[in-house]
# Entry
Amino acid sequence: MCSTQVESAPKTERLFFALWPSDAVRQALRRHCKALLRHSGGRPVAPENWHITLAFLGTVEATQRACAEQVAAGIHLPPFALRLDHVGHWARPQVLWIGASDTPDTLRSLADRLAQGSRDCGLALDKRPFVNHLTLKRKVDRPPAKLDIKPVDWAVTDFVLVRSRTLPEGVQYTVVNRWPLT
Ligand code: 2AM
# Structure
């Protein structure tokens, strides 16, 4: 008798590490960016999806996720203050974003350690250096005339792992793990 073994493909997820704003920071961003968002064309990112990517892992298997989560758990860095005071436009990806003109050393260190640790888990990450940015809109083909905004202060006390799913109604981000900065 002959038996057929069907090998199922490993279960994968699309994941990234991020700074995830509190509701209060999201509300402040909505208020301070109201005019900018109204007058810049393009396709807005839903405010509940706003985040700053620390390291984009791409498609990840369960063992790689566990390894990346161990890397995150092994990072001990203090909380830091982030002042979102700079609006930028990238022409090629057609992205309108807000970020901190001053990248705190702790933030750079957090992003670098997550990226290096994830590479050590066998994940192929983008080689471009970290640029802190929170994407507000996509498909913005030219910079808006007025790029100044009232800064938003964000006391960053943790970082998260996010699952990204593409659904018919749009992209869905779910926070699947969280680590405190202490
Ligand atoms: P972006 O906001 O500049 O587009 C989820 O896709 C998040 O990961 C987005 O914030 C996106 O940044 C970021 N990201 C970084 N590299 C990516 C890649 N190669 N593909 C998709 N998203 C990427």
Q: What stands out?
A: Strands lie at 12-19, 43-44, 52-61, 80-84, 86-90, 95-99, 134-138, 152-156, 158-167, 170-180. The radius of gyration is 18 Å. The CA atoms of residues 33 and 149 lie 7 Å apart.
